[in-house]
Design brief:
- The structure is a single chain.
- It is built from 18 helices and nine strands.
- The chain has a four-stranded mixed β-sheet, with helices on one face.
- The protein has two domains: 129 residues, no CATH class; 211 residues, no CATH class.
- The protein is α/β, with parallel strands linked by helices.
Length: 425
Amino acid sequence: MKNVPKTFGGISKKMLLLVTQFAATRYDVIFDQYLSPSIKDYERDLRRESTQLDFNITGPDQVRPSDFLKELKNIHFKEALVEFFIQHWASDEMVPFVENKHILINFKQCHSYVVDDNKIVSTVDDSLSCPEHEEADTKIVFHICNIDVQANFVVRCSDTDIAIIMLGHMHNLKDDGSNVWLNAGTGNNQRYINLTKVYENLGSTLCRSLPGFHALTGCDYNPAFFKKGKQRPFKILMKRPEYQQALMHFGDPELLTDEHRQEDIFKTIQKFICEIYSVPDTYDVNAARLQLFLNNYSVSNINEEFNRKNSKNFDASSLPPCKTELFQQFLRANYISSIWNYAHEKQPTIFTPEQNGWRLEENQFHFHWFDGDQLPRDVGESLQQSEEDVSNNITDDDEDDDLVGQYRDWLNDENSNNCYGDCDD
């Protein structure tokens, strides 16, 4: 919103004008909820969003904070602002803005506004209220999939997630004659993307595999594979029906409760990840890690001395995650998909993040990176002994000093639980 009005009443009116600038008879305005604890906790920390500062809006004449954009990082401010919209749009001074339109706001409940006899009639639409949904993305899909008449739906957003989730739900539209468009960009860069045509061109199976694919390869809730992005993995996915079938079942209750089913799908996912890292026809990411390392550092014969200097420049981030770490990524992707793939229902999932790739500490969800030891016990003990030898001045070997220093730095990095890849939408 450019040229933000000085008062909250002005902001409310301008917001409604922006919402209704497109020709339509019904407008659904969808907002996130801010639940705690949440799997979005990590992302909110990265965005430096604050939940500490309370905020109260007393009426339309109240003057907004001078730094409006900064205040939008305060979750309590955003909640107060949406609650104000809900109340203000129910006042009769909004009649000229609503006119013959049907306006809905979905926050904690779904509020409906129409004009009757020159007065605003405000009601709560229980059929569209979905308090179990945290994200606006899944609420939008819930609204679209619960309209049982033929319609042209235009979704105005700038988020990749909604396109992915919607393509995974095209088969859940109640009227096959309906079309879904995505309106993205601003000004001269504004574009309309016909998701119905995209769905027809890609096919049902590939589209239904996209939510699982997006959750696995990196999204707001799950780290990405370092420098792998989306394009190469997607090209591989398009060519391999077995990967599409596996990802299509992400989020199924059976996949979150049946260990044997998990093992079967996880084996296929390992093969997919190995192919992303250019080690095809391999079902074990640990074997792929070893192969990639040996491609550069194996000796030509058993009598050749291993050059430890070269290994110091090896970038471990170029390797796929180990099996125990990938399994936690797999569990998180499954849990996320259980929300996305059932977005057309009031309660998208009955499962919890705990035991599915997260742990709860101090009322906040944190990534659970792996189970077991960080290193094989023999390797850990050997490096620990080397460190003790250096500290006791038993050796003055520069190479050993460097190796121990690298081990100490690596161990500190692992203990800090940093992502092994940046999130990449």
